[in-house]
Amino acid sequence: MALTRNDTVPLFSPDTANTLRLIAYLALAIALMVIDHRNGWLVQVRYFASAAVEPMYRLAALPSRLARSAGDAMSDRARLNQRNAELERELLLAQARLNRLQSVRDQNERLQQLLEAQRSLNLGVQLARIIDVDTDPFRHRVTIDAGARQGVAVGEAVLDAHGVMGQVVEVLPNASTVMLITDPAHALPVKSERTGLRAIARGNGALDSLELPNVPISADIKPGDMLVTSGLGGHFPAGFPVGTVRNIRNDASGMFAVATLTPSAALDRSGEVLILHNLPDPVGPPAPAPSEGPPAESAPVNKAPNP
Amino acid sequence: MNRMRANDWLFWGSIAACYLLQLMPLPQVLLPLKPWWLALVLMYWTLEAPDYVSLGRAFVLGLVGDVFSGDLLGEQALRLCVFCFILLRFRARLRFFPMWQQALAVLALLLNDRVVLLAIRAADGQLVPVASYWLAPFVGMLAWPWVFLLLDDARARLRVRDA
Asked: Do B67 and A53 touch (CB under 8 A)?
């Protein structure tokens, strides 16, 4: 005798957990992912949804901001005084150094005028603050509180007081996402400050290290070497500190060495960052030399134009 | 009617709280331990009030999560669909499990979800994650009883007040 449907609690509820429906949704999700991976639709969706996304970020960051300001309010007078004295000392030192650099800069400008070099050392910078949200602990991205309306554009370099942090990868109207240099998908051209050796620094997924793969074994590089951006490629301006060499080992093939760097920038801390606008012209390889031969003026003049 | 509305508020409120908790910053050490709150809360609603949860809704909620987290669009939607499908299939049994067995079921479901996520990320061409990648499901297991008790208590209070 069949029970009526109302008396029984179905062990498998077929109408809500329909396999066919699951497959349809999975297919839809996979299709979305493939399309997004190819065309980057998500960025556009996020741009339009930013009216909802940005307040959510601000709201999620609120507790940590409150906690920090509470910490500031609670920290005792003695510590603040000590910190103040420390900062004053640092400021004095920085000022002295700046004064010295000023004269060097003036000299540099004079020399450059002599050389008729057009490249300017002035960098347009903009201050932004990191919004404390965590979108995925296994991706190295941070969100900052400046976006398209503040003039931020994709590809601009982001620095902090100690070195290069990363570059802008996504821009919302009032916020943007920065990919840190330690992200596994990130690489930037660097050179050794001591020897000028050029290399590529790649993120390896750990927040406190960078990797320098494929360094020739005979290359002059040793622990403690400071690596700065080389400016090749044009994304990052030259001369900003990236990291110091921590150790060097052979790679799996034994043909090359791999150096591990400690990033200069404080990537795990939040606070103010600098966004670099209008990058100077990329310092790339020189334009290819014109093809060899006698100068064009001395070429015989063709009366009949070539077909 | 009124009770329905109070319950609705609780449902949507708990979902919004999940998104906030997911975005909430934590100290660097604790970051990999963050459980998938949305899945835990949806599991409660699936077990106790299945009218609120369907595969379509799981899909949409996952999409919203994707927009917030800025990952691949559809990633969370797919994971949440798989999670809710298994839950809905075994709902009638899971409901009558004692708490510790439910917690173990949560662990199994979340570990399965980690495997799904790994497959997605591998297809996307990203690096194989570190050992701490597998820690979050265990935290989710430990968090499950508290999520359950908190939501159950809130729902019971609403019922008493409305009655």
From this structure: yes
Q: How far apart are CA A60 and CA B17, in angstroms?
A: 10
ipTM of predicted assembly, 2 dp: 0.81
Asked if the C-beta of B78 comes within 8 angstroms of chain A's C-beta atoms, the answer is yes
Residue B158 contacts A where some CB pair is shorter than 8 Å:
no
Domains and CATH numbers, chain A: 18-74 (no CATH), 120-277 (2.40.10.350)
Query: On the CB side of B81, how many CA atoms lie within 13 Å of its CA?
Result: 23
Average pLDDT (A117-129) is 65
Element holding A26 (H helix, E strand): helix A19-39
pLDDT, tens digit, for every residue of A220-254?
888 999 999 888 877 788 888 899 999 998 888 88
Q: Is any Cβ of chain B less than 8 angstroms from the Cβ of A45?
A: yes
Distance, CA of A136 to CA of B65 (rounded, Å): 11
Work out the angle between the directed axes of helices B136-162 and B99-124 (0-180°, nearest 10). Answer: 120
Partner residue facing A268 (CB), from B28, B82, B127:
B28
Question: Is A134 in contact with B31 (Cβ distance < 8 A)?
Answer: yes
